[in-house]
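Let's sit down with a protein and look at its sequence and fold side by side. We need material for that, and I hope you will provide a protein of your own picking. Once you have written the record down, we can walk along the chain together.

***
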Amino acid sequence: MLYFQFRVHFVASKCVYLYIFLVWNALKTKTKLKSEATPFVITHDPSLPNIAQIINKHSNILYSSERCSNVFKDLPMVAFRRCSNISDFLVRAKLDTDLSKPKSVSFRQM
């Protein structure tokens, strides 16, 4: 019976050690690899075709010249810019910055 209790204690201590090891590894800061991909930024439009697929399809043309292959080490990364919509025209984003001057309020006298 003593042998069985020893094994349970041994296994439990190893499980605690493993848990602490896994938590410690998960909390370590990890260095991210910076990619050399050049961003290809375009304005998003729902009628556009799949730009990333077109770039991948015609990548051989991009790498055919030595000059382009020196500029684009990896394939360009496609990034979309938000297109302007009607709320950009209707809503004014700027606020009055001069808040120190009180606004005059006039009341009509009866």
In short: The two ends are 101 Å apart (CA to CA). The longest strand covers residues 39-43.
